[in-house]
Design a protein that fits this description.
Blueprint (H helix, E strand, L loop, with lengths): L2 E7 L4 E8 L4 E4 L20 H16 L5 E6 L2 H11 L8 E5 L7 H23 L7 H11 L2 E8 L5 H9 L15 E6 L5 E8 L2 E8 L2 E5 L4 H11 L6 H18 L8 E6 L12 E6 L11 H10 L5 E7 L6 H11 L10 E5 L13 H8 L2 H6 L3 E4 L2 H9 L6 H15 L17 H13 L3 H5 L2 H55 L3 H36 L5 H18 L2 H28 L3 H83 L6 H12 L34 H46 L4 H37 L5
Parallel strand pairs: 1-4, 4-5, 6-12, 6-13, 7-11, 13-14, 14-15
Antiparallel strand pairs: 1-2, 2-3, 7-12, 8-9, 8-11, 9-10
Helix pairs in contact: 1-2, 3-16, 3-23, 4-16, 5-12, 6-7, 14-16, 16-23, 17-20, 17-22, 18-20, 18-22, 19-20, 20-21, 20-22, 21-22, 22-23
Length: 846
Amino acid sequence: MGKVKITSNPYTQEIHYQEWNGTQEKWMDITVASHANSKLIGEELKNVFFPFKVKRIVDVIIKEYKLEDAVDIVFEGTTDEYVELINLCSSEEYKNQVNVIKGDIYLENARDILPNIRELYRDRIYPLVNNSVSDMKKIERDLEKFTDASNDIIPVCVLGTYSSGKSTFINSLIGAEILPSAERPTTAKIYKVIQSEQCDKASVKFIYDEETVTINFIDDDFIVNGENNSLVEDIKKSLKEREKLSLYEGLKISLELINEFEREVEKHHIHDLIEIRVPFKPGMWTESKNKFVIFDTPGSNSDTNRDHLEVLKKAMEGLTNGIPVFVTKYDQLDTTDNMNLYEEINKIKELDTRFTMIIVNKADTSSLPKEGFSERDKKELLAQAVPKKMFSNGIFFVSSIMGLGSKNDGDFTDEHSAEIFEDNKTKYSDSSSRFYKTLYRYNIMPEQLKVKADQQALECRNAIFANSGLFSVEDEIQTFANKYAAYNKCEQSKLFLGKIINYTAEEINNAKARKEESKKQRIESLKEDKKILISKIDAKEEEKNEFFIAQYPLEMEKYVVEQTQQYSEEEVKAWNETLTKKYATKMGYEKEVQDVKDAVGAIAEDVKQNVTNLVNKASFASLKKIGQDLVDDIKEMADEVDDWNQTRIKVDRDAGEKLLLEIEKDFNQRFAFSKSSIENKSKDYWEKATKEIKRELAALISGSSELTEEKRKELAEIVMTYVDIDFKTNTEEMFDKARFQRKFNLFGETGKLYLGKVTKTYNTGMRDELKQAYSNIKANHECSFVDWLEVLINRVEDKIVDFSPELHAQSQKIEEETLIIKGLIEDQNKLNSYSNEIKTMMSWKE
C-alpha cells in the first residue's frame, strides 16, 4: 500500500510532500533527487493554496503512488484544508482509491486566530509603538499596512485590458453605473471605490494641484469642499442643472467630467488616485461583515496611454491582503500583453497571486458551447496564455450588464445597456426558454469547489443575478474574505511586529551609544589614578553581568521542566469515569438500563406464555395474537432502548462538559502555581547575584589605593546598603486562553469526549504556556538586574568623580540615557513576547 504525507502551511505558502519508507520505517522527503519525475515536486503543486489544487494533488498521488490497494494520504495542515480534502475523497470518484488520515500536527485556521491578533494589536502592541519609536515617520508606511492587514477591509484589485468591460464589471459589483466607460481608454487614474456604511451618503475625493477637493452627496443634495478651479466650477454647474439628482447620478457626472478634463488639458492637474465612497446596492456583499474596497486600475494594453502600467504598479505596491481580479474577454485569453501584465503583477510581493480570479466578461456574446465545456475544451482553454500563468481560484464567465440589471431592476442611464438587458432578461430568468442562459455553468474551478458553488447559484432566488455569473463571482470573493485573506493578514501582522522590534533595537543601540559617549567624556576628564579605578569597576560590572546572565538558564531550565505538571490519560479517564457515574445517577441512567432488561425479559416471558397457550389451544387467532404481542413488545423495547441511548449520550456529553470545565480550572490553578514558583526561583537567583556583586564591589573599593580611607568607607557603605533589586513583572495574563473553548474538536459524534485528545491538549498547553511564561520572566528579571547594576555602578562612579558643573551635566545625561534604555528594553521584551504569541498562534500544534 502506498502512503504519502501532505504538509500544507498556508501562512508560509508552502506544501511539502513525503513518502513512507516501509523498510526504514520513516518518512522520506519527495525531492528531485529521490523522485525526479514526480509531479509533486513542481512549483505548480508546491507554492499554491491547497484547496485550489487539492484534486490535482490527489490525482497525482493516486497515479504515482497507488499500488493494488487504496493509497493512504496523511494530511497535516489547517482544519479548513483537511475538510476540503475529506469532501473530495468522500466522493464516488475516489471510493476505494484513497484513505485520508489526519496527521499528528495541525495549524489553526487563520480566520480563528485573526480576531486574537487584532485584539493583541489594539490593546497592547499599538500603545507600545509610540513609546518604542521616536520618529514615527520611519514606520508610517508599515503602520498603515498593518492597520490594513488587521482590519476587516478586503481590497479587490480589478485589473484588465482595454475594451474588456472592466468598468461595467465594477459597476455591476457596486450595483450602479458610476464609473465612466468608453470605446477609448479613460485616463491613467486609479479609482478607489469604498463601500459606504450609510445608504444616503456618497462622495468623490481627489487632489487637484496639491489641494484636496471633496464632493459630498447627501440624498439629492451636494456640497463641494476645496479650492475653486475650472474643473470644480464645471462640476458644480453640471450638478446644479439637474433638478433631482440621485447619489449615483451625481457620482457618475462628477467622474465623467474629471475624466474628460484630464483628457483635454495638456498638463495633468489631478493626482493619480481618485477616492469614491458609495453605498453598494443589494448583493452578496451588502450582507457581509467584511468591508470591501475596489481598486479600478487602467487598462494594461492601451496604446494611447503609456503611463497605465506604471500607475497600475504604483497602486498595487500600496496594497496588502488583496485579491487580484483579472477581467478579459473570451477572445483575449491568449494575448501576449496579458502575459506581460501577469509578469509585472507577480513581482509585487504585497499581492498574493495564488488567489487570482479570471473574469471572462461579455460571456453572453461569446461562442460558448450550449452543452457546456467538455474536458478537452477545458484543457485547451487552460493551456492559453492567461489561464496557463494565472489560473488558481478559477475562471468565471460573466455578463456584467445582466448582473448590473439584476441589481438595478433594469433601470439603466445608458440606453444601450438598458436595451441589452430588456432584450435578454427572459433568457436569464425563464428556465423554459429555448435560449435559457446559465453562465455560471461554464466556470472552471477546482471540482470540489465548483460543485458547491453551482449548487449555491442554483438556490439563489434572483435568477438573473445567478445566471449572469455575477452571484458566483461575489460569492467567491466573499469566501476569500471569510477564509483565505486571513492567512495573508496574519503573516503581514507578524512581519510588521518584527519590523517594530527591529526599530526598537535601533533605538536601544542609539541610546547605548549616547550613554557610552557620555561615560567616555567623563572618564577623559579624570586624573589617571581615578581612571584606573573606574576601569576596574566597569570591568567588574561587565564580568558579573555576563556571568550571571549566562548562568541563569543553566539553573532555571531544569526547574521549569520540574514545574511542568502533566496528566496521564489514565488519570483523565478515571476523572471522567467519576463524573460519568455522578451524572448517570442524577439522570436515572441505571433505571433505564433496568427498563431495557425488563423489556427484554417481558418479551421472553410473553413468547413463552403465548407458545404454551398455542400448544393448549391451537388456532389461527392464537397464532395471530402471538405475532401481534411480539410486535408490540419489540416496539416497546425499541422505545426503551432509544430512551436509554439518548440518556447515555446526554450523560457522556454532560460529564464531558463538566470535565472540561474542571480541567480548565485545574489548568489555570496549576499554571498560576507553577508560574509563581518559577518567578520566585528566578527572584531568588537574582537576589543572590546582587548580594555577591555587592560583596565583590565593596571589596574592590576597600582595597583601592586610589581613594582616601574615608572615601573608601563611604563608598563601601553606599554599596552594601544599596536598595534591593526591584523586579518589573509583566502582570498581563497570557493572551491565548482558548485552550478548551473549541469543544467541538474534543467530542465524538456520540457525545463522548476524546480523552486522549483532552490529555494531549492539557499537557501541550501547560508545557507551551509555562515555556512562554518562563521566557517573559527571564527577560523581565534580566532587565531588572541590568538596570539595578547600572544604576549602582553609576552612583559609585559619581562619588569617585570630583564634581564640576560639566561633569555633573554628564552624569545627569548618563542617568537619563540609562532610564531611556531601561524603558526601551522593557518595551522590547513586551514586543518580543507579543511576537512570540503571534508566532505560537500560527505555529504547528500537536
